[in-house]
Amino acid sequence: MKKRKVGIPRALLYYYYFPFWLKLFSELNLEPVISDSTSRDLLNKGVKKSLSEICVPIKVMIGHVLNLDQKDVDYIFMPRFRSLKKDVVLCPKFLGLPDMIRHSLPGLKTEVIADQIDSKSDDIAQFSNHQKLAETFSITKREMKSALKKATDFWQRYRDLLFKGYLIDDFAGIEELEILEKVITKFENDPKPPQSRDQNLEAPVNEEVVDIAVIGYVYNIFDQYINMDIINKLKEMGVRVHSFSMVAEETIEKELSNLRKPMFWEFTNKLYGAAEHYLKNDGIDGVIHLTAFGCGPDSMLGQILEVDAKEYEKTFMTLRIDEQTGESHIITRIEAFIDLMRLKKENN
Amino acid sequence: MNNLYLGVDIGSVSINIVAIDEENELVFKLYTRNSGNPIELVKEGLAKLREEIELENYKISGVGVTGSGRQLIAYVLGADTVKNEITAHARASTYYHPEAGTIFEIGGQDSKLIIVEDGIAVDFAMNTVCAAGTGSFLDHQAERLGVPIEEFGGLALEADRDVRIAGRCTVFAESDMISKQQYGFTKPEIINGLSEALVRNYMNNLVRNRVLEGEYIFQGGVAANIGIKAAFEEEIGAEVIVPEHHDVMGAIGIAMLAKRDVKRSGQESSFRGFDLTEQEFETTSFECEDCANNCEVIKVIADSKVIAVTGDRCGKWTASLIGDSAANANVEGSSEKEEKTAAKSSKKQDEDLNKNSEELEANLYKVDLEKEKQVMKELEELEKSDENKKEDNSLV
């Protein structure tokens, strides 16, 4: 029998969970189809069909769903992430995402599978989170559970590499499970450290290497189109790039417990914990908060970080991205930011 | 033969060219309005430089370009250093004013705040998407009120009464000004209100909760406006210094940076020479249709020879200039660069670990019946507690 095709939008938490989904679908004998990388055309289509005041990551998501709708897939897989921790939810836009898609795209041909994800941790491999998927393809509970187990084990290997200092960017372009497996195995056995830990990194002529933590949601910092490829721009300028996904869960928890009242949103809390860790860390020269224009949760996070950066005397900058951001303004800002840190180092 | 370093600042409203010598003394200074053709203006500027100084005594040893239009002009000139205007401004003002603590810089298109400690810039802020409170807005309003921009600031000081004008947004500011005019406020009062609004806006958007310390330096094209300077002094309650060369500080700074870079690398300047004033430059653009990004690719042509290509996100057109063979290799990988490298690395590792990986895989996914059973049991238990959890959650 021909494998049925399930489309996965390359947007939002795709960057966090894609190894899990690739493995899961392969175990279930389904063919995952990933939407194209974000491009001008894809974003324009998304913007046209979105509410005008919604944030750009959601507009990107809508663009990706439209892209999949034209790819002749049997279903579109887009879970409703509700919670990954007790008493903490995700941003309301995640909670309402499937409804928003239904409302914004009444002409969508492809059926959407929208399981609700309610988990106690980042591990989302519970059967209850995949009931609709199982029903749609008449998968038995037993089969599903065994596939989920394998998927989560595979995802855990990916996560361990992230904790070791690899960037999601090092994997995110890969769509084939076989290639991903090989890359993961390779990195696991690689004696060479990842870029963020590389002490022998070479900066452009006569300049010093600096360490910068880029604090932002996975879908903002790893979507190369929407952020003007900031990660690679930083790398080219001789920067070791750090991100929240490298910080151990315990460290994040510990930092969070210092907050009198944690925020309501899962990934905002994660960013907070990681950012605090980096602000206190002497090995980090500066922190960039990369945020999408109009992001509600970040309006709180950004303020807290601004105040704390001053307290820890860490060089700090907020970069805002939106649908139409000229590349030159991003370059001007990151260049000036890096210059600040290099001057500081030179004078010490 | 003395060394001379050129600094060029291509702003949205003005184009500035300076030349400094080994001791950072200003040998040449030119401030021109950007009428829209930066290449021609730079050529004219260089021609003027050639007329004014005796070139036999000097050698151009370094060229730096800054400002929002820096990229294109850097290709035209063959610049050694291309850097953002924040670093350039900070460099120049900390040189002239080592005691500086706060630098206000307001240019044509954007405004900046630079915080300095012990002669080093430690923090900066730049206006976001909106152009309220920048030079071009003032230009526009001066034109609307029929006041030459040079007299604009002086008029503000003649105001008798205070008028409050909304400074948050240029559209609102303009409608506010019109209605206040209709109430009978005089031009000086309106202009004074506008200056105050501009400074208020600057404080709200850029300074925010930063603590400002002296000396206070005010530079950029707008610093020529004594009305704005007065409004700043009123707002912070201290004297504000406008440097002598406030209008070309960016150009001076980038010239100093070019000098540093050339010295560090020990290489000859890549300046294309004064002959470029006689060359014909042309820029053409086309929309690349090789992927869904449809980048606008810009070509810079000097005497019918392409000297630079820019604007492509993937870099394949930029690379096409370097050499045909290199270009061919790049064209293939253009839009899916990272995928290609991933595939490449996996291929490489294929060779290294071919046997190993198969073994590894086999081991990893070997089904151990005993273990499987136990895992399933564990999962089931988790499941149960999860289901209980779900009920709880529904009440949340």
UniProtKB/TrEMBL annotation, chain A:
<keyword id="KW-0418">Kinase</keyword>
<dbReference type="Pfam" id="PF09989">
    <property type="entry name" value="DUF2229"/>
</dbReference>
<keyword id="KW-0808">Transferase</keyword>
<dbReference type="InterPro" id="IPR018709">
    <property type="entry name" value="CoA_activase_DUF2229"/>
</dbReference>
<protein>
    <submittedName>
        <fullName>Putative nucleotide-binding protein (Sugar kinase/HSP70/actin superfamily)</fullName>
    </submittedName>
</protein>
<dbReference type="GO" id="GO:0016301">
    <property type="term" value="F:kinase activity"/>
</dbReference>
<dbReference type="InterPro" id="IPR051805">
    <property type="entry name" value="Dehydratase_Activator_Redct"/>
</dbReference>
<feature type="domain" description="DUF2229">
    <location>
        <begin position="5"/>
        <end position="247"/>
    </location>
</feature>
TrEMBL record, chain B:
<keyword id="KW-0411">Iron-sulfur</keyword>
<dbReference type="GO" id="GO:0046872">
    <property type="term" value="F:metal ion binding"/>
</dbReference>
<dbReference type="InterPro" id="IPR002731">
    <property type="entry name" value="ATPase_BadF"/>
</dbReference>
<keyword id="KW-0479">Metal-binding</keyword>
<dbReference type="InterPro" id="IPR043129">
    <property type="entry name" value="ATPase_NBD"/>
</dbReference>
<feature type="region of interest" description="Disordered">
    <location>
        <begin position="328"/>
        <end position="359"/>
    </location>
</feature>
<feature type="domain" description="ATPase BadF/BadG/BcrA/BcrD type">
    <location>
        <begin position="6"/>
        <end position="258"/>
    </location>
</feature>
<dbReference type="Pfam" id="PF01869">
    <property type="entry name" value="BcrAD_BadFG"/>
</dbReference>
<dbReference type="GO" id="GO:0051536">
    <property type="term" value="F:iron-sulfur cluster binding"/>
</dbReference>
<feature type="compositionally biased region" description="Basic and acidic residues">
    <location>
        <begin position="334"/>
        <end position="358"/>
    </location>
</feature>
<keyword id="KW-0408">Iron</keyword>
<protein>
    <submittedName>
        <fullName>Putative CoA-substrate-specific enzyme activase</fullName>
    </submittedName>
</protein>
<dbReference type="InterPro" id="IPR008275">
    <property type="entry name" value="CoA_E_activase_dom"/>
</dbReference>
<dbReference type="InterPro" id="IPR051805">
    <property type="entry name" value="Dehydratase_Activator_Redct"/>
</dbReference>
